[in-house]
């Protein structure tokens, strides 16, 4: 069971102190956050009906730029960079407060986080949801590779709102895009796929796309972003 005292101590954390007071003066209590976290991180059933309504995600306007700056030395060497987005939940809204850049191994078209326990420690200590991930395509456009789709599946299984941000600095038409797997179409294709490495996926039979642009993102000037670079 989660230690309520530990949660009380770390909530609200310094990372979220920029937040304006909730409109009705009633913030989500620490125990409510803990319960929500437990419920979402440990889904007790396969009931997909709870996944259809997506909570909005607020994130800093500077997130992509800050990440690109942190990635720049890799980008000039044509190596990908990846990061994990930590968000805290208040009044049914996610606020991305933390960008974790883990130790990692990369090529020009892949990136693998190392020491994932260091990521989980930060998320746990600050009671943050893994609300998605961000990575660069240093020399390609923004799209989701088959490996990216499998990575995104694991995030969306944990948190239905989870997003994949692909930053493509060399693509002049779209510098970044924010994706998620279509649900249930893309999610069920990835659930059944056992292949590894780069491989083709069949398209959903109903004409839907396997992944889609996200519409539940709100960019904010006022959100502070803490960057935890573990490299
Ligand atoms: Zn990718
Ligand atoms: Zn696959």
Structure overview:
The longest helix is centred in the first third of the chain and has 14 residues, at 63-76. This protein has 231 residues and is α/β, with parallel strands linked by helices. The chain has helices at 4-10, 30-41, 63-76, 116-125, 146-158, 185-192, and strands at 56-60, 82-90, 93-101, 104-106, 111-113, 129-136, 163-167, 176-181, 211-213, 217-220, 226-229. Mean pLDDT is 84; it is low at 1-36 and 43-51. Residues 146, 150, 193, 195, 199, 201 line the site of one zinc ion. The site of one zinc ion (ZN) has 5 residues, from loops.
Q: Major β-sheet, in short?
A: 9 strands, mixed
Distance between the termini: 31 Å
Q: What is the overall pLDDT average?
A: 84
Shape: globular
Q: What is the string of SSEs from the N terminus onward?
A: HHEHEEEEHEHEEHEEE
- Number of domains as seen in the coordinates: 1
- Which stretches are poorly predicted, pLDDT < 50 over at least 5 residues? 1-36, 43-51
Are any ligands bound, and if so which?
zinc ion
Second CATH tier, the architecture: 3-Layer(aba) Sandwich
Strand content: 25-35%
Contiguous helical run count: 6
Q: What is the helical fraction, as a range of percent?
A: 25-40%
Labels describing this entry:
single chain; 231 residues; Cytidine Deaminase, domain 2; nine-stranded mixed β-sheet; two-stranded antiparallel sheet; 6 helices; globular; binds zinc ion
Give me the secondary-structure topology.
Layout: H1 4-10, H2 30-41, E1 56-60, H3 63-76, E2 82-90, E3 93-101, E4 104-106, E5 111-113, H4 116-125, E6 129-136, H5 146-158, E7 163-167, E8 176-181, H6 185-192, E9 211-213, E10 217-220, E11 226-229
Parallel strand pairs: 1-3, 1-10, 3-11, 6-7
Antiparallel strand pairs: 2-3, 2-6, 4-5, 7-8, 8-9
This protein binds zinc ion (2 copies).
One zinc ion (ZN) binds next to helix 5.
